[in-house]
Design a protein that fits this description.
This protein is of the alpha/beta class. It folds into two domains: about 180 residues, Vaccinia Virus protein VP39 (Rossmann fold); about 100 residues, DNA polymerase, domain 1, CATH 1.10.150.170. Helix content is about 40%, strand content about 15%. It has a seven-stranded mixed β-sheet with strand order 3-2-1-4-5-7-6, sandwiched between helices. The longest helix has 15 residues.
């Protein structure tokens, strides 16, 4: 069961300003085309970079800032404080978006943004356990206040076949069987509790060869997706979000790996087969070379959009 709340669950310790740079900021704003007085939802508000730019661009626009990560929501609260009551904060997963919006908001949203995956703030916080580059507890939960099962707990209880399946399906890892067997062998000696333990284990299993990425990259991605049920969350969002849009409203999704992008592309194409929605950016948009050079974490990003057709068939410019 996924629990949702309209209240912001504040983290126990102080939260500093965000270090996350919003990806494809100009492209996102051009796609959403925010209008004065409009109603918008940032379903993964994170550090608030996209949200702040949207509110600055459209005078009097209102924003519903949603995130399942209480720390991210607190950072957004700090970043968006100058906009006062134009912003409402909801601590919830985006899969629950249809349930947490009010009845007077459903079907009247002018734009929804979902920026998928993990943020720089989460990666840089060693205590969250998302990164193999920083030693910390093997956690990876997006919402520790409501999720009981961390990556360490998952690896301690899953079978070798299950671990292999996650690595192969969610990480597209060629050496999934070898890594899964090594994890099971290692836990006979003692539990895997630290990110450095898992990263070192995977590095011993995967030959570096000419790889341009760290050997543990795919394993950490796969475990993070498994811990947080990310693909199920995304499927739920893609099924519900189009129905929340007002006529002429746009759903924009930023994805960062092929598993996400394939789902978004297929869902948007299916919606566009009806007379109610039209596909925007049919081939997707990617960051400029300048942005990729400035922000390496943007390199795998792809932006797609879906618009609910305006009543009467006229297309909003």
């Amino acid at each position: 069961m996924i629990l949702v709340s309209r209240d912001l669950s504040r983290p126990s310790g102080p939260v500093g300003p965000s270090c996350h740079e919003p990806v494809m900021l100009r492209e996102v704003l051009d796609l959403l085309a925010p209008r004065p007085g409009g109603l918008y939802v940032d379903a993964t508000v994170g550090g608030g970079g996209h949200a702040a730019a949207l509110l600055e661009e459209a005078e009097g626009a209102r924003l519903i800032a949603v995130d399942r990560d209480a720390q991210a929501l607190e950072r957004a609260r700090l970043r968006l404080a100058p906009f006062g009551d134009r912003v409402r904060f909801l601590h919830a997963p985006f899969s629950a978006l249809a349930g947490v919006l009010g009845p007077d908001e459903r079907g009247r949203v002018d734009g929804i943004l979902a920026d998928l995956g993990v943020s720089s703030d989460q990666l840089e916080d060693r205590a969250r356990g998302f990164s193999f580059q920083k030693d910390g507890p093997l956690d990876m939960r997006m919402d520790p206040s409501r999720q009981k099962t961390s990556a360490a707990v998952l690896l301690a209880s899953a079978s070798e076949d299950q671990i292999e399946s996650w690595l192969r399906e969610y990480g597209e890892e060629r050496f999934a069987r070898r890594i899964a067997r090594a994890i099971v062998d290692a836990r006979r000696v003692g539990p895997l509790l630290r990110t450095s333990q898992l990263a070192d284990l995977v590095s011993r299993c995967v030959p570096r060869g000419r790889q341009s990425i760290h050997p543990a990259t795919r394993t950490f991605q796969a475990l993070r997706i498994a811990v947080n049920g990310e693909l199920d969350e995304l499927d739920a969002l893609l099924a519900s979000a189009p129905r929340l849009l007002a006529p002429g409203g746009v759903l924009a999704v930023l994805s960062f790996h092929s598993l996400e992008d394939r789902r978004v592309k297929l869902a948007f194409r299916n919606e566009a087969r009806s007379q109610d929605y039209e596909l925007l950016l049919p081939r997707g948009a990617v960051p400029s070379r300048a942005e990729q050079a400035r922000n390496p974490r943007a390199r795998s990003a792809r932006l797609r959009g879906l618009r609910r057709r305006p009543e009467g068939g006229e297309v909003r410019p």
